[in-house]
Amino acid sequence: MARKNAFSLVAFALFVLLAANLTSVESIGVCYGMIGDNLPSPSDVVGHYQLKGIRAMRIYFPDQDTFNALKGTGIDLAMDVPNDVLPSLANDASAAANWVQNNILAHDGVSFKYIVVGNELFGDAANDILPAMSKIWDALCSAGRCNQIQVSTAVSFAVVKNSYPPSSGEFGESFMFPIVNFLKNTGNPLMVSIYPYFSYVQDQAEIPLDYALFTSTAPQFSDGPYQYQNLFDAMVDSVYSALEKAGANPALEKKAGGNLAVDYSVSLIAVESGWPGSGGNPVGASLAVGATLSNAQTYNQNLINHVRNGTPKRPGNLETYIFAMFNENKKEGDEVERHFGLFNPDLTPIYPLNFNLKHGKVLYCLIFAFAGFLNYRCSSSRTCIQLINCAYYFVMDISTINKVCLLL
């Protein structure tokens, strides 16, 4: 009886410990870029997302092989409408409806979450964003899917001017204002690429490396009631300030039970963020500036750990997509653009990362532990095997498992 009671306490403790940490599942996705000639198959890539517990993916164009691999996995998909497709959709509602039919509705079992209409467009091309978004949204609503799939566009952080301090942030591009109004009226988010790396290499005299890498040990400055200890938060909050100035103001909303809560009319998604492991300075210096494997690991791990807490201005989970799954050796532009990958083509890690995300096997372990089905001696192997499987996906230290086994 004493042994069973001890096991029950341990099982309950494991249940509480693991369940309390399941909240980070929705915070992190990884961008799956395919501009390379040495990349693994989509089925292998999707399998690796599952193995690592990565629950969200962004792709930059519709891809049939990726759709087939994703079916039934439950991995949330953010899919781009490529920039060169926007003009045809912006001017033709039937073309937008056909695009939705062929690339979304025809693929049952794929968990489409976001349609990203255009990526970092500027100038005259940006004028196609809003009409294309509107027609894609109408097509989804006509199909009864606009309560399941959201529509947005991915904009560069360069659309924000006066980003320091964050409260001064405002949009410097006129095309942003009608887009924000559309997002506010339809309940859709704004997607922004947030890259402290590029800000750091372009202004090293003013931006300390530790501030860009989340390793600063003290706040660097205050902005009203908010203190900023890392550049990522300051950049994100400057976008929030720009949204508010564009009319997407937070408001108090009465919830069930009469409680007041803040309602943000336009939420924000960091649709790309990352740090290169090599490649040098994108502004042309002959020596690499900050682009090292050590810095890339530090930034991305700290990003994963941080975004569940949100920012000083808006606490809470901030959905974020790390760029990118692989180095893309055929990508155009500066050399550094080809070195943001997390994994090699053979799917081994370029550097270790703990995604701290949980999926089905954790729940499997929880159910078994809490229900008491692991009530065996440690030497029977089944107990330890189940707990170690659980620990693998939970990334628990093996010494903890050994201590638990001793109590069984």
From TrEMBL:
GO molecular function, one term: glucan endo-1,3-beta-D-glucosidase activity
Keywords: Glycosidase, Hydrolase, Signal
Protein name, UniProt field: Beta-1,3-glucanase
GO BP term (any one): carbohydrate metabolic process
Annotated InterPro entries: GH, Glyco_hydro_17, Glyco_hydro_17_plant
Organism: Rhynchospora pubera
Family named by the database record: Belongs to the glycosyl hydrolase 17 family.
Xref: Pfam families: Glyco_hydro_17
PANTHER family for this protein: GLUCAN ENDO-1,3-BETA-GLUCOSIDASE BG1-RELATED-RELATED (PTHR32227)
Signal sequence residues: 1-27
Lineage of source species: Eukaryota, Viridiplantae, Streptophyta, Embryophyta, Tracheophyta
